[in-house]
Amino acid sequence: MTKSITSKKTTPSKPIYPEPRTAHDDRVPSHRQHMSEVADTLRGTALDPNFSVDTAPMPSPTDRINERELTSIYALLAYVAYNQNVRQETIQMIVEAEFGVDNVAKIQRKDYMRAIEFLVDLKLDELLN
Question: Is the pTM of the predicted complex or chain greater than 0.85?
């Protein structure tokens, strides 16, 4: 006895994959407006006869760290102090002495990464012994 197997071909009612968005898609008008404003700003800068990459203002080397960088340093100070079982003020004084400032907030921007690396590598036991 042989049975014949028949299969029905069914098509899904909805497409399996969503339709791709086109360049003319207006689903996000606020995003489109924002991107237009950014493009206009860039276009205006590029057309400015006084603009030059060579004369663009560079940050001064004496610039202080910003609030986010300061928050990162304070968080790392607390973390190091907790892990090494010392007061946070002790770690802060070591960092201030290393960078020649009277307050961590006065660390220069150019020294930010070095301060982070210093805190990560700081071993108080080796420093004091």
Answer: no
